[in-house]
């Protein structure tokens, strides 16, 4: 069996671009929905740079490079997605209300599999907007998608066995490893990753140590490849704030966003994407 032939990705931000790339690299025809023209332009550049870099490193031969670029196309609206896609993945900002609206609209295109890349909103909460929650589940990719090996598959209460089996197959076919978790806010990865990051921010806020030393503590003391503050800069402080806010609603004050995070987001210091977060990039 070949990899899913047709894929739709909704939202061409940090994650949507990476997800589109890995499917195109695996041979799928990918349509990317991005209504923001500036974002779409930036996404095209990121995709072109990533493909050129892979070619320069000998990971893509010239024919594959050309084929990959031909498999990616942008559309401005969900209604422009092809009908009956093999797989549609939502990667819009981490807001339950927005995701519910987007998913309901994508469902009208009748994809065989419908997935969300949410970092932590319960699948059950998002499935409420759908007529066919049995084909819906979480496919949680990691940043940067082209190099991170994991996809966390989240099975909702209504997700059926065929959908879960197909999703497992898809993850294998794009060359990723998977874990399967039952539906709970934050799943396994965000729940653990975000709690460490929030504690690191509270330590920084209290002046316990510098950002560099807090990160080094986890990198050298616990063998994390990247410290929690640097990782937050990479993920986006706004993205982490949204996740923490959702998790605080589900699990209480241990996920309350620290003041330093609220202040940095309000000041537009969102991490690497804006040139400044806990570090200057
Ligand atoms: P982002 O802000 O970089 O990108 C979101 C994109 O969605 C933007 O380009 C925006 O223009 C677009 N968008 C907004 N509304 C839309 C709509 N109605 N239709 C189509 N596109 C729309 O966000 P991101 O970091 O890529 O995160 C996307 C999702 O992935 C979130 O749920 C986030 O929690 C999750 N996630 C993020 C990371 C990370 O490291 N950033 C990792 C794993 C999962």
UniProtKB/TrEMBL annotation:
Pathway where it operates: Lipid metabolism; butanoate metabolism
Classification lineage: Bacteria, Bacillati, Actinomycetota, Actinomycetes, Mycobacteriales
The keyword DNA-binding is assigned to this record: no
Domain 3-hydroxyacyl-CoA dehydrogenase NAD binding: 6-183
The entry's keywords: Oxidoreductase
3-hydroxyacyl-CoA dehydrogenase C-terminal domain location: 186-281
Coiled coil: none
PANTHER family for the chain: 3-HYDROXYACYL-COA DEHYDROGENASE FAMILY PROTEIN, 3-HYDROXYBUTYRYL-COA DEHYDROGENASE
Xref: SUPFAM superfamilies: 6-phosphogluconate dehydrogenase C-terminal domain-like (SSF48179), NAD(P)-binding Rossmann-fold domains (SSF51735)
Pfam family name, one: 3HCDH
Family according to the record: Belongs to the 3-hydroxyacyl-CoA dehydrogenase family.
Record flagged with keyword Oxidoreductase: yes
Protein's UniProt name: 3-hydroxyacyl-CoA dehydrogenase family protein
């Amino acid at each position: 069996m070949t990899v899913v032939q047709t894929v739709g990705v909704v939202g061409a931000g940090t994650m949507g671009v990476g997800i589109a790339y890995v499917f195109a690299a695996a041979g799928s025809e990918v349509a990317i929905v991005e209504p923001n023209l500036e974002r779409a332009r930036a996404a095209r550049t990121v995709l072109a740079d990533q493909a050129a870099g892979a070619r320069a490193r000998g990971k893509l031969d010239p024919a594959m490079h050309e084929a990959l670029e031909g498999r990616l196309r942008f559309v401005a609206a969900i209604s422009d997605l092809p009908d009956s896609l093999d797989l549609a993945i939502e990667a819009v900002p981490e807001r339950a209300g927005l995701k519910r609206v987007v998913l309901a609209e994508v469902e009208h295109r009748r994809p065989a599999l419908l997935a969300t890349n949410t970092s932590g909103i319960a699948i059950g909460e998002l499935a409420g907007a759908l007529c066919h929650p049995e084909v819906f589940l979480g496919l949680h990719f990691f940043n940067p998608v082209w190099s991170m090996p994991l996809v966390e598959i989240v099975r909702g209460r209504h997700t059926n066995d065929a959908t879960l089996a197909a999703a497992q197959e898809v993850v294998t076919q794009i060359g990723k490893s998977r874990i399967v978790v039952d539906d709970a806010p934050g799943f396994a990865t965000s729940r653990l990753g975000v709690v460490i990051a929030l504690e690191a921010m509270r330590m920084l806020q209290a002046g316990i140590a510098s950002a560099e030393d807090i990160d080094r503590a986890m990198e050298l003391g616990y063998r994390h490849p990247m410290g929690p503050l640097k990782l937050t800069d990479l993920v986006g402080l706004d993205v982490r704030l949204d996740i923490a806010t959702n998790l605080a609603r589900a699990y209480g004050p241990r996920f309350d966003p620290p003041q330093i995070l609220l202040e940095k987001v309000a000041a537009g210091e969102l991490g690497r994407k804006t040139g400044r977060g806990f570090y200057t990039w």
